Structures are given as structure tokens and as C-alpha cells.
Amino acid sequence: MEKKWTAEIKPKKKVFELNLKETFKYRDLIWLFVTRDFKTRYKQTILGPAWFIIQPLMASVIHTLVFGNIAGLSTDGVPQFLFYLAGSITWGLFSGALTATSNTFVANAGVFGKVYFPRLTTPIATAITQMFNFFIQFGIFGVCALVFFFLPNENFTVTWVAALTPVLIIQLALLGLGFGIIISSLTTKYRDLQVLVGFGVQLWMYVTPVVYSSNTIGNGGLYTATMINPVSPIVELFKYGWLGAGSTPWLYWGISWATTFAVLFLGIVIFNKIEKNFMDTV
Amino acid sequence: MEEKDIAIQITGLKKRYRLGTIGGGTLRGDLQSWWARVRHKEDPNSKIGSKVYGKNETFMALDGIDLTVYKGERVGIIGHNGAGKSTLLKLLSRVTGPTEGEIKLDGRISSMLEVGTGFNGELTGRENVYLNGAILGMTKAEIDSKIDKIIEFSECAQFIDTPVKRYSSGMYVKLAFAVASHLDSEILIMDEVLAVGDVAFQKKCLEKMSQVSQDEGRTILYVSHNMNTIRQLCNRCIVMDHGKIVFNGDVSEGIDRYLGNKMVAQNAIVFHKDHKNKFIKNPDFIFESLEMKSRLNVPVYTCGEKMEMVVTYRCKKAIENMAFSMVFYFYDQSPVSMTTSERFNIEQTEQGKLVFSVDISHFAPGKYTMDLCSYEASDFADTKFHDMIVKNVINFEVTESPKFNFGRGWNHSLWGHIVSEKLEVGKMDEREDRSSAE
């Protein structure tokens, strides 16, 4: 009679043996990681959670000064501050999810080396934490929008596209997670990728309509090139929804979703392959 | 035949590590090496002019392990550093994967390769219990139902809502162990976790571990260098050496095997032709063989007996003032006693025989080994050593006799290895009478 085993440990894993079911079983752990990240991030700081808010506000002020006033980039008639704030919180969600998940293995080597749990829980928790950060910042965006709404000479329109916000947020987090876990899998062996992430993300921001409006780059090849970037249509739709600025690149949004799934799937496959033996190389 | 339920089955398990640095460390370095290999050029990243140690050499941390553990067993794993114990536990707990072979598990497994994995200093004790519990595989609901028991067991109730970074190291460990010991998993893997914490808590932990194993039929795998805890906790023992299992069975036997690795008690011993002689390169006097004279055909003496042995030797030239000495050791290598012989002259011979007779009647029951040394004594303290048989070659055992009977056995760690003469007790007045009579 064949005995039923709870688990079998073998040298090689199948490429598509993804263990997503097991990861789901550990959802309590994911949640605890999220609360841990929140509780500990701003312990023993003066401003505490206020940093969540200060960061995008400061960025927007600087953007307004540099891009709006000095460079004089067009914001499609929308209040500059709001325009840049919308850009920086959406971009912040993506870049935050990417950077934070990209050092999963290196940052958690201590825990991973001592106990087994589905490794995917850590980057997922990180991405969720980033989404919560975004909600707080989104609240601030709402407050600022209200203020500008009652100011004279400032006008912007909220369109129905704003209703897509939850989808956009989830997509940004998934995209960041996907790229992040690919990089994290590669950094177990090549640490220089971490350096690449640092400035790579900065450069990436400039090919995304964060500090400029897509209308300023026209409809030619440059526009296509920008919109192929999977982050661009998401940021663009968010801005269009809440401010009525920019365009509604539906086709590119579809491509962006395809890219998101492809990247995420590839990420999970690589991550699964690496997680088994990463302790020997990290 | 009663078939026991298997909890862990390991077949042909191997783990290979590459020696030296893995890759160039950077993508650029690896690409360079790869490009050089493609063109059959010398690797630009290899060191020039020095032999590179371990480049592409491998090391088998585990070299073919076959092991079956039944449910409810408490298996102790011992072995020297680098024997592969921790690697085995790592593979079992899925921290890293095997190179070859496979492990089959029946039941949830939880490992404590370290106490307090994932503890975060900023969080309070209670929050860390949840976090650590979840990392070890518990759901929030499970922890909710056990939190009170865990806190009580940890003896940290007073500090449970204080960040653990303010804890003493002892409290930290207690809390961590409390979480781990309340896991519901059927298989528990522990690596020296009891090494910390005070004696009382260690005892409590051991009791808890045996209790969960006996009452709930859980399987425990425990690695330790502390033979006492192994003895108390385990009912099976595995000795590992160089990535292989060299012993699998009874606990005391396993521990003996580990402590006195080479101890084999034989009656007749022929010394190896070139047995190590640290003192003289080309000695004139050489021990050839030895035969213990005992009642049975094994070197076992009862307490109170004398030991006799016949030693065969070879002597290249006549030696004056020859003497012999013996140093006795208990099998854990702690010294017991020493004795020397009278001096005498020895003739040149191809094969001579000597009878050694030594009083070991005060040795407590147990296993012993000895050094046997021949030397040329002189009055000017410049002793010239000839041949020496170092310990763990000549071994013997002393057993209890009706005269020396100690009930539950002689406790070597408490009483040493020598039984003193019978304690004589007389009445006070009788003694006084005797002394006054003298």
C-alpha cells in the first residue's frame, strides 16, 4: 500500500510548481508582516507616520518649482501642485513596491535561513504595505483637491475614469511586485543589480508621464514609446480621472495589463526557482 | 508483525556545496569568465600565480543519508562539528534543497534552528508571539487560542506588552521557546535551542518536549552537543561523521560511540607495525602485542579484581634501568590514575614476553582505557622514552561485583572513578576501649 505523505522534498522543482495554495494558507502571516512594517517603520521618529504625507507633498512642491515654474512645462491647465502630487503618489506606489520587494532575499536572509515558510509571503506583504501607504497619500491628495476646488482661478474636472482608481492601484502594486521579485531573485547572486535599481527607477520616472503631460509629447513615435512603458497608461488614467489632464490610452492600458500579468508570472516562476537554494548563494 | 507508522523517510540524501567563491560575485565578472571559457582563454578572474583552492571543487556536507524515523520517536543527532547535523536539519526544514535523494514527510513539520526567528525588537512580546507563531506556521486563530498558555509558559507575563528589545536575553529565549513549544506540528526539529536559558527553564523545556512526544505522539529530532539533554530527551540516537550516519540505535551506546569513538575492547591486541611514536624515531624497545588475562575471553574485570596482561616485545639492544608506566583513563578520556614499575635490565631479543600485573581493584564499574609507556629511567631526570601505546588502544571494562555493589550504579560524574575502601563504622565506646587498652 502506498503511504500518503504530507510533503516530499526533492532536489529539483518543476518550473510551474508554484505553491500559490500554500502561500494563501499563510495569509495570516502576510497580514502580520504588513502590520509589523507599519508599526515598526516610524518607531522612535519625531514625525512618525506624518512622513507618509510629507514625502509626496515635498516632492510636489519641488516639482512645481522645477518643472512647473523654472522649466515651464504644461500641465494642461490643471493646478500644477495637484498635477505633480497625483503623479508622484502613483509613481511612488509603483517605485515603492518595486524597490522594497527587490531586496526581499537579501534583507530576509536571516529569517529565511532558519525557518521555512512560503517565501512569496514577504514580497506580497511588502506590496500590500505600499498600497496602504498610497491610501494615506491618496487621502492627502483628496484634501488638497478640495482646497484647490474652492480656490478661484483654479479649475480641474473629475471624470468617470476616477472610478477605476482601485483597479489602477492594484495594477500598480502588482506591476511593482512583479518587477521587484524578478530583481530580488537575481540579486541573490548579483548584488550590483541593487545599485541598478536605485538609479534605474529614477530614470524610469522620466519615461513615464509623471512630471509632464502626455499632451506635450504629441501623438507620434515618442508617445507610443512612452505608452509602451506599462506604468505610463496607469499614471495617465489616474491623472485623467481625477484632474481631467492628459489622455485616455485605452489600447495601451490593455497592453499594460498584459505586461503586468506576464511580468508577474515570470517573476513568480523565477522566484520559486531561486527560493529553494538561495541560502547557498546569498 | 506490528508495523509502526513512519514519520520521516530519507533516502540517499546528499548535499553538495561548492568550495571557494561562487561565481565572480558580479554579473560582469561572470560574463567575463564565461566569455573567456567560450574562447578557451584563461579566466581573467582567476588568481594568477597561486593555486586556487577549491575552485570548482565540491564538498559533500551530506553524503548519502538513509534514515527512517517512526512516529513518536525522539531522535538525538550527535557528531563532531562539520559532521553534517545542521545541514540535515536544514534540508528537513526546507531552508535549502538537497542535491540528490529525497525526503518524505508525514505530518506538519516545524523547525527551531534558532530561537526567536523573526522577532522584531520594536514590537511587544505579545505582537512577537503572533509574528513568530505565524512564521512557524500557525494561523492567527490558533495563536489566539494558545496565547494565554504561551505567555504563562514563557514566565514573561509581566513584560508581555513591552517591546522585546528591552528584554533580557533570557526572557527573549523563554518567550521564543514558549511559542515554538506550543506548535501543533507533528514533527519538531530542534538545533541546540536549549543551550540558552537558565537551568530551571531548560529542565522545564525538556519536560515539555518529552511530554508532547509521549502524550501526543509527536516526533522530535534534536541536535545537541550536550549529552545530558540527549540522554534525558531522546530514545534513539544517531551519530554522524563526515556526512554519513555511522551509528543508529540505542542512546547510551550512541553517546559512548561518539565520546570514545575508537574504543573497542579486545582481549588480544597486536599493535600496528608503525604505531605512532611521538618520542623516538627509531626506538630500541618496541611493543609487539598484548594479551589481557581475564576469566572470560573479553577484557572485563569485576570490581576488586587484579588485571594481568602478557606483553610481547622486541628489543634491539640490551637496556639498563628499563621501566614501564601506565596511565588509566575513563572512557570519556578523563584521567583516573597512574602507576610505574620498578627498574630492571632487559636483554636484547627478537621476541620477549613480560607479564604485567596491576591492581585495579579500586576502579569503579565502567569502561576504561590506558596509555602504556616504556622508558629508560635515570637519576638525572633525563628520562628517555622508548615506546608508547597511546590511549584508546588498550581498553577494558570493570563491572560490579557482589562486594562492590552500588544499587543504582556508580555515578562517575558525581563520585569520580575510584571506589575507596569500605567505610568502617564502629561504636564510639568500643574504639575508646581499644585505644585505652593499647
Which key phrases capture this entry?
heterodimer, A: 282 residues, mainly alpha, 1% strand, globular, B: 438 residues, alpha/beta, Coagulation Factor XIII, Chain A, domain 1, six-stranded mixed sheet, 10 helices, 19 strands, extended
Question: Mind explaining what this structure looks like?
Answer:
The complex is a heterodimer of chains A (282) and B (438). With 282 residues, chain A is mainly alpha-helical. Chain A has one domain (51-280). Helix content of chain A is 67%, strand content 1%. Chain A is globular. The mean pLDDT of chain A is 85. Chain B is an alpha/beta fold and 438 residues long. Chain B has a domain at 268-415: Coagulation Factor XIII, Chain A, domain 1. In chain B, helix 3 (125-135) crosses helix 4 (140-154), helix 3 packs across helix 5 (169-181) and helix 4 (140-154) crosses helix 5. At the A-B interface, strand 1, helix 2 and helix 6 of A face helix 1, helix 2, strand 4 and helix 3 of B. Strand 1 (7-9) of chain A pairs antiparallel with strand 4 of chain B.
Provide the CATH architecture of the domain at 268-415 in chain B.
Distorted Sandwich
CATH class call of the domain at 268-415 in chain B:
Mainly Beta
Structural class of chain A: mainly alpha
The run of helices and strands of chain A is: EHHHHHHHHHHHH
How helix-rich are the residues of chain A, as a percent range? 55-70%
Strands ordered across the widest β-sheet of chain B: 5-6-7-3-8-9
Q: How would a textbook summarize the main sheet of chain A?
A: none
Report the total helices of chain A. 12
Main sheet overview of chain B: 6 strands, mixed
Shape of chain B: extended
Rounded mean pLDDT of chain A is 85
Number of domains of chain A: 1
Count of DSSP strands of chain B: 19
Largest interface in this structure: A-B, 40 and 47 residues
**Span of the ends, CA to CA of chain A:** 42 Å
- Alpha-carbon Rg of chain B, integer: 30 Å
Order of helices and strands of chain B: EHEEHEEHHHEHEHEEHEEEEEEEEEEHH
Number of helices of chain B: 10
